[in-house]
Predict the structure.
Amino acid sequence: MTLTRSIAIICLCSLLLPHLAGQQQDPSVDVVHLSDSQLLKIESMATDSVGGELEVPNVFTPNGDQINDYFEVTTDGTTLYEFSVFTRTGNRIYHSLSPRIFWDGNSLDGQELKEGVYYYVIEEEGGVNPFEKAGFMHLFR
């Protein structure tokens, strides 16, 4: 767990715990107002683990032009993900277990794959409520 995530959890618990436990005697005394910038900072600490949303691209072009050459999903870099890519017929052609969700459009043995539609499955390893996402992507060369 990262330091910023730990700090965010501690802050949220200290703000919400008295209310959830029914210990507030005068609700107007413990009301905390956060500015928009403070809310944005707290939201930015809410990373991709335990049910968070990952922004997954649906097109990439591994043609060497340095633009969208990789299928890559931004993560916090600490959460471990199992990432698999399948053909339209269900054959698994790529697999990784890493904090980085990344694919260069080649099979595990280095073969350049054809243009087309491929399916992916992303599963977070561990955690109380592991994150799962599946979908498809277009590979254009």
